Amino acid sequence: MLVSPVILRLKGSGQPPLFLLGTDMTHPLIPDLLDLAKPIADQLNLDIVEAVFQTNQSPPVLRVDIRNRHQADTGLDDCEQMSHALDEALEASGLMPGAYVLEVSSPGVSPILSTDRDFSTFKGFMVEADLQETYKNKITWIGQLISRDEHSITLSQKGRPIKIPRSLVSVVRLSNQAP
């Protein structure tokens, strides 16, 4: 039987709410693992972005993706510190039955911009803004990201700023289009 990975995003991490991928049930260990990992991440000024328990591997793989709260990039030192601290906590708790592999990594760059940090980090980058309804006869806007505030997202198209009401925007993603 093939078991899909269970993916659970932690509430309050600045990421989308809890969801599962590839299964109708959460693996029974995931909530307890997150309860154990969250205080460790907090002490290290990290957010847990994603936790995946791959039981189709032998031994099973527990992968925890983290993000540094105060830096644009999550570094190897962040991953190493979290890995050591979480490994010790898992061993002391007896939560993991039998052998397993613990992987701590950064999630990499998501093409979807959702947090204030994302919009600040990718200012000047080409983005695509998909709208819920047409605005000035377009449903998708492509341009260089200038800013985002409470009311609008501002893109530059050929040097001209375009303000798009945030209420119309469904998603903003990084684009591979040339400026």
Count of all domains: 2
Known CATH architecture of the largest domain: 2-Layer Sandwich
Query: Percent of residues in beta strands?
Result: 35-45%
Helix content bin? 10-25%
Low-confidence stretches: 1-25
Radius of gyration over C-alpha positions, nearest whole angstrom: 19 Å
Strand order of the largest sheet: 5-10-6-7-8-9
Order of H and E elements = EHEEHEEHEEEEE
Number of helices: 3
Cα(first) to Cα(last) distance is 48 Å
In total, how many beta strands? 10
Largest sheet geometry: 6 strands, antiparallel
* Principal-axis shape: elongated
Structural class from helices and strands?
A: alpha+beta
Description:
This protein is α+β, with helices and mostly antiparallel strands and 179 residues long. It folds into two domains: 6-105, Alpha-Beta Plaits; 112-174, SH3 type barrels, CATH 2.30.30. Helix content is 21%, strand content 37%. The protein has three helices and ten strands, in the order βαββαββαβββββ. The strands form two sheets. A six-stranded antiparallel β-sheet has the order 5-10-6-7-8-9. Helix 1 packs across helix 2. It is elongated, with a radius of gyration of 19 Å. The N and C termini lie far apart (48 Å).
What is this structure, in a nutshell?
The chain has helices spanning 30-43, 76-93, 116-121, and strands at residues 6-8, 46-54, 61-68, 101-105, 112-113, 126-135, 138-148, 152-157, 160-165, 169-174. It is an alpha+beta fold. The longest helix is centred in the middle third of the chain and has 18 residues, at 76-93.
